[in-house]
Amino acid sequence: MKITVLPGDGVGPEVTREAVRVLIDVGAIFGIAIETEEHLIGGAAIKAAGTPLPDETLRACDDSDAVFLGAVGSPEFDDLLPEQRPEIGLLGLRRALGGFANLRPAKAIPALIDSSPLRPEIFIGTDLLIVRELLGGLYFGEPRGFDPDSAEAFNTMRYGIDEIDRVARVAFELAKGRKGKVTSVDKANVLETSRLWRTTVSEIAKDYPSVELEHFLVDSCAMHLVTNPSQFDVILTENLFGDILSDEAAVLTGSLGMLPSATIGGKVDLYEPVHGSAPGIAGQNVANPLGAIASVAMLFRHTGKSESAAKAVEDGITKVLEEGYRTVDIAGENCHKLVSTLEMGSLAARYAVDSANFSYAYHAV
Ligand code: IPM
Ligand code: MN
To answer: Among all ligands shown, which has an atom nearest to the Cα of 9?
Structure first.
């Protein structure tokens, strides 16, 4: 597999280095040769090339089997207009690659029971998947801008039936392989886009009789996520609601640093941890690389079509946590094995390789 690696800003390069290590080590065991090529994006690209998404980066991404991204964004650029900021590099990349379904799984991890501020009885058993529409809504709707004459800023929420249709089908397909339930989240009591969302999703549900569909309003869903999260299986929602709800769902796993994501449906799949560039801890070798490493598992699963390689990576993560190793974000109160980004990465790689070797040997026999 030819993978374009975009480390980006802040902790991006640190977590990406560990993820790539796991990718290469585990790939080797399953006979998946990995070729990686690094390119610039975000603030790093603005500094080196004057633009957050250089053409060279786009060309490389276009010509690869998948793109792996660390994080973008930096407070240095806080005063810039939205169209000049590092984030525009990521949004432009998402649009160019065409992936419209952003998968963000959140699973409660028994070993991390002490890391969540929530009471364990609330979140134990949680295993949900947010399917976030990634190319529409307020993020991309036109017109947008600032009108100096009226001193008004404006963004446009716009959704077409086809955009809703295609992402809804991804959610229903994935639900078939899980607990068989889709919760569609909208604000249909207020927004026209949400009314269209709701009727379109209900229509599509008829093609998936084995999947149960329910509708939630986004405010109510936000509350249910932290009061009774185990009721959810697949949560299907539009771009901005999905952005917000996925950060909230991170609390269920112990830390935002744990959450992976995959963006599928376009020309080239894109993998990135859900967390941002975390400038406050960048360059200190303390960031949690497990969200990035779990994104490698998703890469093996969706692009590499290797469920065994994906499982090996996930087993590696489980094992490292069961052994008690913790980065600061998940350390809790009684942690005796506080490790750095690099140590966590090499431990996860070693356990993933052990698990991969075991599963490879098992299948070979
Ligand atoms: C995310 C991030 C991005 C988003 C930003 C960095 C543009 O918050 O991937 O969730 O809002 O989609
Ligand atoms: Mn976000």
So the answer is: 1
Determine the 3-state secondary structure of 201 from DSSP: helix
Q: For the structural domain made of 117-252, what CATH number should be given?
A: 3.40.718.10
pTM score of the predicted model: 0.95
| Domain ranges (residues) in the chain | 1-99+260-365, 117-252
The binding-site residues of ligand 1, defined as CB within 6 angstroms of any ligand atom, are 72-73, 87, 90-91, 243, 274, 276
Write down the catalytic residue from 176, 207, 219, 337.
219
- Protein residue closest via CA to atom 11 of ligand 1: 243
End-to-end CA distance of the chain: 26
Task: Kindly give the number of the ligand 1 atom that is closest to the alpha carbon of 72.
Answer: 6
Find, among 316, 246, 315, 232, the residue nearest to 274 by Cα: 246
Angle at 129 (CA atoms; ends 127, 134), nearest 5 degrees: 165
pLDDT (tens place) for every residue of the chain, 365 residues total: 999 999 999 999 999 999 999 999 999 999 999 999 999 999 999 999 999 999 999 999 999 999 999 999 999 999 988 888 999 999 999 999 999 999 999 999 988 888 888 999 999 999 999 999 999 999 999 999 999 999 999 999 999 999 999 999 999 999 999 999 999 999 999 999 999 999 999 999 999 999 999 999 999 999 999 999 999 999 999 999 999 999 999 999 888 999 999 999 999 999 999 999 999 999 999 999 999 999 999 999 999 999 999 999 999 999 999 999 999 999 988 888 999 999 999 999 999 999 988 876 766 55
Q: For domain 1-99+260-365, give the CATH superfamily.
A: Isopropylmalate Dehydrogenase (3.40.718.10)
Tell me whether domains 1-99+260-365 and 117-252 share a fold: yes
Q: 323 and 337 in contact (C-beta within 8 Å)? A: yes
Distance 240 CA to ligand 2 centre (A): 9
| One-character DSSP codes across 326-339 | E-GGG--SS-SEE-
